[in-house]
Amino acid sequence: ALLKKLAEQYDIFNGDGPLKLRDGIELVFTGDYIDRGDNSRGIIKDLMLLIKHNPTQVHQLFGNHELLALADLDIARDILHFGSMEENCLDAYKLQSIHGYNGGTAFVSEFGNNQYLALQHFSEELSRNGLIGQWMRNLKPFYVAHMDEKKILFVHGGIPKDITSKESLESYVERFNIHMNWGTSGYGGSRKKYLDHPLVNGHSFFWDRQIPSMEEDELQKITEKLDIDYIVIGHTPQHKIINYFDKAFNIDVGMSPAYGKREPAAILFKQNGIFAFYVNQGEKQLA
């Protein structure tokens, strides 16, 4: 619905192919594409098409829910391996996994018409060789967009305390890429790699929630230290896009059915300002 309305309002696609963007348009997605909804696989299919046809114009970030799904693959495989719970293996997955407990069974159930097949196909498709698994492991930890002289940092959750400079941002990317390329056995399992490791744990870009509670001077210092102008976050659902002192913006409006199917929204950075765009309400200037 959001892509359709953006196309109608701003003519973002050029018509040369499915979801092919016009020159000068960039789309950034801030993560949490799965769980609690009923069409996560359809969303992922569209995201895959977007990145395929616009490899330099589309930027897709990890959310904590994608990390949770990867973190609990070992648990999914263990439940399947022991095979004593074919009729209620999704119930077991919900009880035993952090992903399942946090809405993940809604995503897993999309993979089959019974609990066992759903969990089996989920574990196969999210494996390193599976289509969704390959796509998911190539998601970015954050993205810095440039518009004229302005720099916009897009990140799922927030800024970890140990990220204090532009150089530390760049160093993190190098370490994160190495981390993602290693197999889980080198870390002691999927949970230790995707949930417990310092690069991805509760103090990382994917879980941090400090920005909404920061004072204006704190935000100013962070943007100066990182050599950026604006920060865009998601992670914590709100009823509308929130502006923090014209420096940071929370764009997670809770579009999932679990939050009442709130109105789909995006943030727009244009020559004449920064705007919230809502599917039904249209543009509202933010800064």
Summarize this entry quickly.
The chain is of the alpha/beta class. 39% of the residues lie in helices and 15% in strands. The strands form three sheets. The protein has a five-stranded mixed β-sheet with strand order 3-4-5-7-6.
Structural overview:
- This protein is α/β, with parallel strands linked by helices and 287 residues long.
- It is built from eleven helices and ten strands.
- It has a five-stranded mixed sheet. Strands 8-9-10 form a three-stranded antiparallel sheet, with no helix packed on it. The chain has a two-stranded parallel ribbon with strand order 1-2.
- A hairpin with a 2-residue loop joins β3 (142-147) and β4.
- α3 packs across α6, α3 packs antiparallel against α10 (190-196) and α4 (73-82) packs antiparallel against α5.
- The mean pLDDT is 95.
Estimated structural class? alpha/beta
Give the spatial strand order of the biggest sheet. Answer: 3-4-5-7-6
Gross morphology is globular
Query: Per DSSP, what share of the residues sits in E-state strands of 2 or more residues?
Result: 15-25%
SSE order: HEHEHHHHHHEEHHHEEEEEE
Instruction: Count all strands and give the number.
Output: 10
Instruction: Count every helix, treating DSSP H or I runs of 4 or more residues as helices.
Output: 11
End-to-end C-alpha gap: 25 Å
- Give the mean pLDDT: 95
Radius of gyration: 19 Å
**Poorly predicted segments:** none
The percent of residues in helical segments reads 25-40%
Major sheet = 5 strands, mixed
